[in-house]
Design brief:
Blueprint lengths: L1 H9 L13 E10 L2 E10 L4 E5 L13 E6 L3 E7 L3 E2 L5 E7 L6 E10 L9 E3 L4 E4 L4 E2 L4 E10 L3 H20 L1
Antiparallel strand pairs: 1-2, 1-7, 3-4, 4-5, 5-12, 6-11, 7-10, 8-12, 9-10
Helix pairs in contact: 1-2
């Protein structure tokens, strides 16, 4: 039993997932309506306030021109807020937000939980990968003070050497249990 505990003590610990604070996130907005195509890119550094506000100087603001809109990114969430009397997103071929370069190589997105008061915006309109999230806004109407918030669920990605050590240690544990 002492040998098993000694082996278990030598197993690597997985790194913890990192947050987004102080990282650079790419904020894209894609709008394709027939021959008209608009693709924006804003590289924002995540801080404590709004990363983008419209009207303002962001490329995103050249497409999203209605009322006041803000984008906040925290350690584990992305929030879009619309302050105004209501508006709608075109029901076009593409009309979506896309957030890329989320987290570094040591952290991956494993899930996204949506909180919103925008009618028709549900989980079926959210897609994600290891380091990106998309939000399909086609044909949605935003009421007064509309918002969506994406709460990102993440997990650390073990280094290859750590993963190999972990698997080797588990194999040793299994072999020791069989010998008993």
């Amino acid at each position: 039993m002492k040998k098993l505990l000694a082996v278990a003590a030598q197993l690597p610990t997985l790194a913890s997932a990192t947050g987004l604070l102080d990282s650079t996130v790419n904020v894209h907005y894609h709008l394709a309506d027939g021959p008209q195509t608009r693709n924006t890119l804003d590289k924002v550094v995540v801080g404590t306030g709004a990363e983008l506000s419209c009207p303002g100087g962001g490329d995103l603001c050249n497409v999203l021109t209605s009322a006041t809109q803000s984008l906040y990114i925290s350690e584990i969430a992305i929030r879009f807020s619309y302050l105004g009397g209501g508006d709608d997103f075109l029901d076009a071929q593409h009309n979506r937000f896309q957030f890329t370069s989320l987290y570094g190589a040591d952290t991956t997105i494993t899930g996204v939980q949506l909180a919103t008061n925008i009618s028709g915006l549900d989980a079926s309109r959210i897609s994600f990968g290891e380091h990106m999230v998309r939000v399909d806004m086609r044909g949605l109407q935003v009421a007064v003070d509309g918002y969506f918030q994406l709460n990102l669920q993440t997990a650390p990605v073990p280094e290859p050497a750590s993963a190999a050590l972990l698997l080797g240690g588990l194999g040793l544990l299994a072999a020791a249990r069989r010998r008993r």
